[in-house]
From TrEMBL:
Coiled coil: none annotated. ATP binds at G173, E174, S175, G176, A177, G178, K179, T180. This is Myosin, heavy chain 11b, smooth muscle. Pfam families: Myosin_head, Myosin_N. One of its GO terms (biological process) is actin filament organization.
Length: 239
């Protein structure tokens, strides 16, 4: 288990919005999402339906008339900051954006969406890549630990060892999204668990502690070169 100070960057704490009172309040207000020029979407409660339009009340008390087609349903409070967005009752753009935003503001940068792991770049170092964290994810099923790039990597590694088939991890995103850093974390995790696996099979001394300075430099000018270098390093670990 991670240190207490690290838990807040991985585990979801108790939240009033998940209480029965919050659930009842949400149901009574008929909460929905409506378009917002500034925020993308904002919360509103339905006051009246008028044919193809709805009269809604915003959080500041103002009322507005919105087309039904522009309204997206809001999930119950029990889904607040959910770890896997595939579990959402209403899987729409507004709910996905809201969930990612809420988790990000709680310093939870990793979120699952079905088979995918969504990462929001914190633009700062978080204490969630230490050896203790690596040990926490070793051999664990995805639902047993919080969302993390280590969980995705461990799952790929276990499938490779069990099925003896090549596995792929693809990091995609816009420039500055954190693709290179997460690729480094994939290689870091593979290096540690592959060394541990190799150490069990032979008596040669194996370096147990990872060192970021020894990780391959995956910051070339071309992203394509970076991806091929990562693939080469991973294949070397499979030998």
């Amino acid at each position: 288990m991670a240190d207490t100070d690290d838990n807040k960057f991985l585990f979801l704490g108790n939240d009033f919005r998940n209480s029965g009172l919050a659930q009842a309040d949400w149901a009574a207000k008929k909460m929905v999402w409506i378009p917002s020029e500034r925020e993308g979407f904002e919360a509103a409660s339905v006051k009246e339906e008028k044919g193809e339009q709805m009269l809604v009340e915003l959080s500041n008390g103002q009322k507005a008339t919105v087309n039904k087609d522009d309204i997206q349903k809001m999930n119950p409070p029990k889904f607040s900051k959910v770890e896997d967005m595939a579990a959402l009752t209403f899987l729409n753009e507004a709910s996905v954006l809201h969930n990612l935003k809420e988790r990000y503001f709680s310093s939870l940068i990793y979120t699952y969406s079905g088979l995918f792991c969504v990462v929001v770049n914190p633009y700062k170092m978080l204490p969630i890549y230490s050896e203790k964290i690596i040990e926490m994810y070793k051999g664990k099923k995805r639902h047993e630990v919080p969302p993390h790039i280590y969980s995705i990597t461990d799952n790929a590694y276990r499938n490779m060892m069990q099925d003896r088939e090549d596995q792929s991890i693809l990091c995609t995103g816009e420039s500055g999204a954190g693709k290179t850093e997460n690729t480094k974390k994939v290689i870091q995790y593979l290096a540690v668990i592959a060394s541990s696996h190799k150490g069990k099979k032979d008596s040669n001394p194996v370096r147990k502690h990872h060192d970021d300075s020894l990780l391959p430099r995956v910051t070339p000018s071309k992203q394509q070169h970076a991806r091929w270098k990562a693939i080469t390093e991973i294949k070397n670990l499979m030998i």
